[in-house]
């Protein structure tokens, strides 16, 4: 299943499937590339601001980064199935 990073449930493992670079300003796209966002990279949402439109904190590799909701909305992720406990 493919969804946007903006709507990915907290602590759900996912992999970046695609990034809509046309929805991002040049500095935003450059920052994502510098941070390592690319197809096939594992990502996880750690925290999301409750008050409308706040940032999304996510883990990519060993880094924790905050993304604006609009930027997170441009990133499509494939959700990995949850491991059975």
UniProtKB/TrEMBL annotation:
Recorded superkingdom: Bacteria
SUPFAM superfamilies reported in the protein's UniProt record: C-terminal domain of transcriptional repressors
GO MF term set: transition metal ion binding
Domain called Ferrous iron transporter FeoA-like: residue spans: 3-79
InterPro entries referenced in this protein's UniProt entry, alphabetically: Fe-transptr_FeoA-like, FeoA_core_dom, Transcriptional_repressor_C
Keywords, sorted A to Z: Iron
UniProt keyword Nucleotide-binding present: no
Keyword flag Iron: yes
SMART domains with a match to the protein in the record: FeoA (SM00899)
Protein's name according to its UniProt entry: Iron transporter FeoA
Annotated source species: Sphingomonas endophytica
